[in-house]
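pasting for ref
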Amino acid sequence: MSRSQIKQTEGDSAAVLSALGSKYSVEILCAAGTPKSAQALSEDIEIPIATCYRRIEELVNAGLLTCEGRRLSDEGRRTNIYRRTLDEIEIDFSDETPEFSRKRRTEAKNRLQDQLES
């Protein structure tokens, strides 16, 4: 798969850079290669659940994480399941506004990874 150039506005660039710069955001993105709830991410990374929810919201707003739907938790509650939207991101700071090159995750890769996890 080739990298896709994403034309970003200054607001989009600021949101991505802000989200990536927040403590634990990178760890959440790495852990969210497979669908996981906020509770599972919080436990995997060993961070408070409130912090995890704040980072998830930032990452979703920046387009780096997506809610894939809802599942029942072990306690029987409906909970959102998240997965990252990309595998790689490259940031070029040589111009006035950062430019991003992303390697997006494909649905085919997500389905294959889900099959391997089951």
